[in-house]
Amino acid sequence: MKILLVEDNDRLADRLSEKLGKKYVVDRAATASEAHMLSSKVDYNLILLDLGLPDENGADFCKEIRRQNNVPIIILTGEFDTATKVSLLEIGADDFIVKPFDYTELTARIDAVSRRQSRPHLKKTLVHKDLVVNTERQEVSRAGQEIKLRKKEFQILEYLLLNKGRILTREMILSHAWGHDTTSWKGTVDVHIKHLRDKIDRPFDEKYVKTVYGLGYRVE
């Protein structure tokens, strides 16, 4: 696995490079411009990104990278309040870890994000346990039972499955299913999630769509 570490703190970058280098191939960038240059030349499997870069806000860098490709991004941050966590997910981060952090936790998060990495846009069939979604025919079944979903319900379920294990905020779901320029109220996401749960979760013992309180929803 090839990792791009974007961190301007030399001591932290040295320490992380040494530890991560025992398991992964690690390139370093101390500025956003350097990181842009490296990422344009190398197909990285994951980016570790510090938000406090000297030449560009790390959040802006994250959004730029996300517009270009789907490389997983883990944010290194000193903030841990809910608002910050939500904003990091909204700009396209796949995960975040709060400084100071334990190295074993970081590697666990890297491995977890890597396991989720795929090319979901190529998949015609999404499967989660006994839930099967055909994205071409927009057909859904669970435990062999056909389930009829409305268009928005299907789009939300597909989005959750394509990002399995990742927390999706209401804003992210709203943008995906209704478009970036939507004027729809965020509460409409909760309404559609309820309808979706009524159809794919309520008739069954195991519930798949989880609420992450204060953040959003995910399928684990």
Give a structural overview.
The chain has about 220 residues and is α/β, with parallel strands linked by helices. The chain folds into two domains: about 1-115, Response regulator (Rossmann fold, 3-Layer(aba) Sandwich), CATH 3.40.50.2300; about 120-220, Arc Repressor Mutant, subunit A. It has helices at about 10-20, 30-40, 60-70, 80-90, 105-115, 150-160, 170-180, 185-200; strands at about 1-5, 25-30, 45-50, 75, 95-100, 125-130, 130-135, 140, 145, 170, 210, 215-220. The strands form three sheets. A five-stranded parallel sheet has the order 2-1-3-4-5, with helices on both faces. A four-stranded antiparallel sheet has the order 6-7-8-9, with helices on one face. Strands 10-12-11 form a three-stranded antiparallel sheet. The mean pLDDT is about 85.
Rg: 19 Å
Strand order of the biggest β-sheet: 2-1-3-4-5
CATH topology of the largest domain: Rossmann fold
Percentage of residues in strands: 15-25%
Which CATH first-tier class of the largest domain would you pick? Answer: Alpha Beta
Number of domains: 2
Secondary structure tally, helices: 8
Q: Structural class, judged by helices and strands? A: alpha/beta
Q: Main beta sheet, described? A: 5 strands, parallel
Instruction: Give the full name of the CATH homologous superfamily of the largest domain.
Output: Response regulator
